[in-house]
Design goal:
This protein has eight helices and seven strands. With about 250 residues, it is of the alpha/beta class. The chain has one domain: NAD(P)-binding Rossmann-like Domain (Rossmann fold, 3-Layer(aba) Sandwich). It has a seven-stranded parallel β-sheet with strand order 3-2-1-4-5-6-7, with helices on both faces. Strand 4, helix 4 and strand 5 form a beta-alpha-beta unit. The longest helix is centred in the middle third of the chain and has 29 residues. The radius of gyration is 17 Å and the shape is globular. About 45% of the residues are buried.
Length: about 250
């Protein structure tokens, strides 16, 4: 079995214009999958898809991954372009920092809409398509170490990530009979375009991570590909933490 062979697979990845999502899309495409790359930023999605398309089939599908109607349109487009859907990765999410006592209702709603509703309805739409195909498939949710350990000013974000892990566990009951696996990965501190805007990020997380550095996007993508590959076909309802050991000791970056 070649765990890195994704030939004859079609994947949707949300929030993949840059960072972790982009690297997952790139690696899937490099290993034979056809990819529908989503980002809310149309230009970012288009440029990302162009960069990845040199390795194979990758198209951009820009729009709001928290909208159930848009999600269904994205699934329909994957079938129109590539004939099927076998992998759905709910990577899109937002982080809105804020103290609990001052947190605004509109901010909580925004975080819930994308992180929970968007992931829920991508899993639903993807599973319905896989059921229709009678082919099985893999669904992957993007959790976080903040769903396991308290992190200052991230109460709203943390509860959404913990909820996604429970969603993966719960959906085992309904998706296993369809030969669909559903899992979550929980990245810790990761070097991306966004996090490196903080000049102290690398130094801080290198100091408090037992493995001596934050993750790279390749570290996270490697785990993601394993979780949607044939090599993990008997793994479902699980959450895999990729954090260099941080949750074992959990020192605060503050």
């Amino acid at each position: 079995m070649n765990a890195n062979d994704f030939s004859n697979n079609v994947a949707i990845i949300t929030g993949a214009g840059q960072g972790i999502g982009f690297e997952i899309a790139r690696q899937l495409c490099m290993n034979g999958a056809s990819v529908v790359l989503n980002d809310i930023d149309e230009m970012l999605a288009s440029k990302a898809a162009e960069r990845i398309a040199v390795h194979g089939n990758c198209i951009a599908f820009a729009g709001d991954a928290s909208d159930a109607g848009f999600i269904q349109a994205m699934v329909d487009e994957s079938v129109k372009q590539f004939g099927k859907l076998t992998i759905a990765i709910a990577n899109a999410g937002i982080t809105l920092f804020g103290g609990f006592l001052e947190y605004k209702p509109e901010d909580l709603q925004s975080v819930m809409n994308l992180n929970i509703s968007g992931s829920f309805f991508l899993a639903q739409a993807g599973a319905k398509q896989m059921q229709q195909q009678n082919s099985g498939g893999s669904i992957l949710l993007m959790s976080s170490v903040t769903g396991h350990q308290a992190h200052k000013n991230l109460a709203a974000y943390g509860i959404t990530k913990a909820a996604l892990e429970m969603l993966a566990k719960t959906l085992v009951l309904e998706l296993s009979p369809l030969n669909i696996s559903i899992n979550a990965i929980a990245p810790g501190a990761t070097v991306t375009e966004r996090t490196t805007e903080d000049e102290s990020y690398m130094g801080t997380w290198s100091r408090i991570t037992p493995m001596g550095r934050p993750a790279t996007v390749e570290d996270i993508a490697n785990a993601a590909l394993f979780m949607v590959s044939p090599a993990s076909r008997h793994i479902t309802g699980q959450s895999l933490i990729i954090d260099g050991g941080w949750t074992s000791v959990s020192p605060s970056p503050y």
